[in-house]
User: Which sequence fits this backbone?
């Protein structure tokens, strides 16, 4: 299983926190039919994307990218000590994430930027850690980059009723003065760009990295399973706007189809990284 990839002048490390069965496929993807699942069951099991009980297997991970100028962490995973509704995330105390970061040769103090594709609990959890009963930024010298549209959406939701993940993993970063709210045209140096990809959440973004071209793209939750590459119209149950998510997904896959861009998915089973290729009326993420 490859955890490190090189493309252009970038080195990309996968930092895995969990790889586990998640939801039954037919529940997670409401538009999926038993017939379509049956047609695809064999290859999905072979790809470790589906278990024997027809639950989707998902990876929960960050990517750490070393460019010539910066060390960038994309999506900070689940986190420890946090109240969550999923049992495998709730009040977690393991060291899997920090061990994985160390295995990539890095510590929290090495990160220059933390960039969040969106603000769901499993993408922001390690933004903060518990210290003497208070949430503090985990990555002490990093600037945390949030899309303004996404931040504003969750601020409004949190004002109506507290959103635990926003309260413990985003607001403490804001209070510490470590955040930047950015628009869809934001760039960091000549290597890092934002690609708006709304649908899963209103302000969801992908990140493209490379000097003057997209050597790698980090897709976040615009796609969860290889099945959605083959059938881009299949949106998942937590997409805020399922029709927009499907449209975004197809346009993203069309954009990168048959290019050399390395597509780094958030949740595909290992190796999680590949190049987008056309297959019939859909696509595959072909492992490199």
Assistant:
């Amino acid at each position: 299983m490859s955890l490190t990839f090189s493309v252009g002048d970038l080195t990309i490390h996968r930092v895995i926190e969990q790889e586990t069965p998640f939801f039954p496929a037919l529940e997670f993807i409401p538009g999926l039919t038993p017939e379509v699942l049956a047609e695809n069951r064999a290859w999905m099991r072979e790809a470790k994307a589906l278990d024997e009980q027809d639950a989707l297997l998902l990876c929960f991970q960050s990517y750490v990218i070393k460019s010539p100028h910066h060390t960038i962490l994309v999506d900070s995973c689940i986190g420890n000590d946090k109240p969550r509704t999923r049992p495998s995330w709730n009040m977690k105390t393991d060291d899997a994430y920090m061990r994985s970061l160390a295995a990539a040769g890095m510590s929290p103090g090495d990160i220059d930027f933390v960039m969040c594709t969106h603000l769901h609990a499993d993408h922001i959890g390690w933004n903060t850690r518990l210290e003497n009963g208070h949430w503090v930024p985990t990555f002490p010298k990093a600037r945390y980059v949030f899309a303004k549209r996404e931040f504003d959406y969750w601020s409004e939701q949190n004002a109506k009723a507290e959103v635990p993940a926003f309260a413990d993993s985003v607001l403490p970063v804001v209070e510490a003065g470590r955040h930047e709210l950015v628009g869809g045209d934001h760039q960091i140096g000549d290597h890092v760009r934002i690609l708006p990809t709304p649908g899963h959440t209103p302000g969801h973004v992908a990140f493209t990295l490379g000097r003057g071209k997209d050597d790698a793209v980090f897709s976040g939750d615009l796609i969860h399973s290889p099945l959605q590459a083959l059938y881009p119209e299949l949106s998942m149950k937590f997409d805020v706007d399922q029709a927009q998510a499907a449209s975004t997904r197809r346009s993203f896959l069309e954009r990168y189809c048959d290019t050399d861009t390395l597509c780094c998915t958030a949740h595909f089973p290992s190796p999680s990284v590949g190049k987008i290729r056309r297959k019939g009326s859909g696509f595959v993420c072909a492992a490199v």
